[in-house]
Each structure stands twice: as structure tokens, then as C-alpha cells.
């Protein structure tokens, strides 16, 4: 999280443009919908610029985005930083040789995968997704990148839902994490 006055204003601005959809996809869930951020050209630009300004001097080699909303932001940030983009997909979606990582969901498990040649050993990677909830997807994605020899410089997301514990789990694994805003206690 940014702690400067300007960063706090940007964080509030972004947070105010995220729609909360109650009881979706099931009763009791407060879904944080980022689509209003993407629909409005100004908010989309502010969001992308927040990430670009944070990472423009980080000496990165590639941006990796997590299926599916991480593709939207990750691809644009990669383009703006003049870097390549790597998709981390749900199982069965990539056509070439892959490595896989299974992770636990609230009910059951899921698997993400990456092409074996997505990064070169030693590549410095920015890992992006839209939201951190329980952390399972982000942690699995970071493990995949590490398994193919890349270094995750930082994991990043628009939204943190700290009460679900994912951001703590990510940081406990020594994966640096940056989020633009959070919905603690909401």
C-alpha cells in the first residue's frame, strides 16, 4: 500500500470506483467488481499509471498475469513498461508444454499452469492479478514462476481483502506484495 498523501488519494479514488455486488456468486459474499474501473477511461488510466509508475524503475524482464482478470491489467502494464507478457492460465488452456500447480479453494481445489518456456532462468517478474482473497491463486502462480527459474520481484493486485488472510500468507512466504486498496472490515 502506498503511504504518501498522493498515493492515499489514488487509493481512495480507485476504491471508490469498485462496485460491491452483495450475495454474488453466493449468499453472504460481497463481490468486489473491478469492471467499472475498466469501463471509465479516466479510472482505467489512473489505475494503469499507478502500476507503471511503481514499476518503471524496477528493472523487470516480464509481467505475468493470472487468469483471467490479471490478463487485463497485466497486459496493459507490460505494454506500457515495454516488457513481454506471460499468461498463467487455468488448467487445460495452454497449448504447449506446461508445468502445473494445484492450490486449495474454499471448497475443493484448482490448478494453474504456465508454459515451460514462458520465462528464462533469472528473469525478474512482476506478477499481477486483480484481487487477493485467500491468496491461493497468487501463491500457486508465484510457485510456477519460481519452478521455471524466474524471480518474482513483487506480486501486485488492485484489491486486498485482508480479512480472508491471503495477503498475510503471501507475505509470510517472503513474496513482496503491493495492493492499491483494500476492503478491510467491509
TrEMBL record:
Signal peptide: none annotated. One of its GO terms (cellular component) is cytoplasm. Pathway: Purine metabolism; AMP biosynthesis via salvage pathway; AMP from adenine: step 1/1. It is found in: Cytoplasm. Its main location: cytoplasm. One of its GO terms (biological process) is AMP salvage. Keywords: Cytoplasm, Glycosyltransferase, Purine salvage, Transferase. InterPro entries: Ade_phspho_trans (IPR005764), Adenine_PRTase (IPR050120), PRTase-like (IPR029057), PRTase_dom (IPR000836). One of its GO terms (molecular function) is adenine phosphoribosyltransferase activity. Homodimer. Catalyzes a salvage reaction resulting in the formation of AMP, that is energically less costly than de novo synthesis. This is Adenine phosphoribosyltransferase.
Amino acid at each position: 500500500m502506498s503511504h504518501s498523501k498522493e498515493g492515499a488519494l489514488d487509493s481512495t479514488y480507485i476504491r471508490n470506483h469498485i462496485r460491491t455486488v452483495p450475495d454474488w456468486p453466493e449468499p453472504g459474499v460481497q463481490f468486489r467488481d473491478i469492471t467499472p474501473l475498466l469501463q471509465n477511461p479516466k479510472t482505467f488510466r489512473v489505475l494503469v499509471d499507478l502500476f507503471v509508475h511503481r514499476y518503471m524503475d524496477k528493472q523487470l524482464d516480464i509481467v505475468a498475469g493470472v487468469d483471467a482478470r490479471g490478463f487485463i491489467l497485466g497486459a496493459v502494464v507490460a505494454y506500457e513498461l515495454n516488457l513481454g507478457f506471460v499468461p498463467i492460465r487455468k488448467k487445460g488452456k495452454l497449448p504447449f508444454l506446461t508445468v502445473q500447480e494445484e492450490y486449495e479453494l474454499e471448497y475443493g481445489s484448482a490448478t494453474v499452469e504456465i508454459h515451460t518456456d514462458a520465462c528464462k532462468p533469472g528473469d525478474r517478474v512482476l506478477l499481477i492479478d486483480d484481487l487477493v482473497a485467500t491468496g491461493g491463486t497468487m501463491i500457486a502462480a508465484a510457485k510456477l514462476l519460481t519452478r521455471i527459474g524466474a524471480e518474482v520481484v513483487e506480486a501486485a493486485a488492485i484489491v486486498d481483502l485482508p480479512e480472508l488472510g491471503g495477503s498475510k500468507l503471501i507475505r509470510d512466504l517472503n513474496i513482496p506484495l503491493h495492493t492499491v486498496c483494500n476492503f478491510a472490515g467491509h
